[in-house]
Amino acid sequence: MPSAFVFAMLLTIATGILAWIWVGTSPMQIVESWYMGFFDLLGFAMQIVLIIITGFSIALSPIVSRGIDALAPRIKTPTQVYVVVVFIGMLLSLISFGWIVITAVLARELSLRVNGIHYPFLIACVYFSFNSWVMGLSSSIPLLLNSENNFLIEAELLSSVIPTSTTIQSSLNFAMCILMVVGGPVLMFILRPKTAKSRTLKDLHTTDGISHNTTIEEEAISLKLPFKTWSDKMNNSVILQLVIVLMGGSYVLYHFATRGMDFNFNIMIFIFIIIGLLLHRTPVRYAISMQRSSSNISGILFQYPFYAGIMGIMLYTGLGDRIGDLMASLATVNSYPLYAYVTGAIVNFAIPSAGGEFAVIGPSLIGALRNLGEGLSPMEMNQMIARASMSVAYGESLSNMLQPFYLLIIMPIMGSGVKLQARDIMGYLLIPFLVLFAIQSLFVIYWPI
Predict the structure, then answer these.
(1) How far apart are alpha carbons 113 and 407 in whole angstroms?
(2) Which residue intervals of 130-167 are DSSP H helices?
(3) Nearest Cα to Cα of residue 389 among 191, 215, 221, 139
(4) What's the pLDDT tens digit per position in 208-250?
């Protein structure tokens, strides 16, 4: 596998060629569509950056370090590390997409404390544990379907919202959660490397990474002037930071009291910021932690626009609609979940965002289901739509095991100062993809909703 950036460039060219041959779009229209989409993910990219650095900042706090120090002696072997990281990562990702950052920090710290860990495989374990997010509280497709006046209702493809009781809280999704949370660690246990020769973090570490020999507290003290000043008092003011924490904490409580368990990127970033402020206690310590957390995010900053450009080609040339229409023409009442699952997996290579992907293929998918389910009751129709929509989500998530896009979230933490590329990690995920593809295909077809 080439580097993640080369992978994005190859996908750009492949998507453009497909739009030219299949849709008949002119080369200049393809380039224009590419440019139109190029900056569509800037807001999303900024959210990802903030999720990473605010989460990493929390991990750099003294209390988290002490917690990992307390956990590490209980985990004595590399095998235990792999299993624990996958299990905890699956649970964290069920709560929020962004909590993969916490899993990455935990994995890196354990690799420093337990000898003999195969570091590329450990990174693969962290990336693998990210799979459960589409089944959890931050899954974008079911949250979209349950949103008032969403674009599908406005287009009259849906008559009302589809409650999460038929998506996230369904029997099918519960079975998928069990499969991933229980079966995932078992699968990675079976596939674990028998030796870590020349592949431990110590072996792979280079002098290119930023090494901090001083603690955040020590650096904060070193920044003080040799005489007393009001500026130093404010920089190191616990009270000033506590006021901001109280303001932020009050809004977090208000948010969940008025909106229920509404997890999204913005509230997760906000929570991470408030927790980070609380744990680091003073403005100068928090600023230092954020500076250290931001040292390795260049991959996200320049690669997200390229994936946005691919999405632009899919969206503005009509290629996405054509793929959705093809799926609709092939599907039957019995096979539509499998077609939705496979379509979600394929389109994810060009649009690696569940919400963005569903915005492109969702209308064609639901239009086809309405034709297939003609004569069914509204409840039965909603169940068909829920099953197909969740199938798209499962396929979208699993195919990440074959492409390195979301590895960009993990590598700023686990890859800092380490000589590793995507090709050193992605190979460990091929067999998990094949195994889960077979099992999940049966689940989406036969398991009751």
Answers:
(1) 23
(2) 140-145, 151-154
(3) 139
(4) 444 556 788 888 888 888 888 898 899 999 999 999 999 999 9
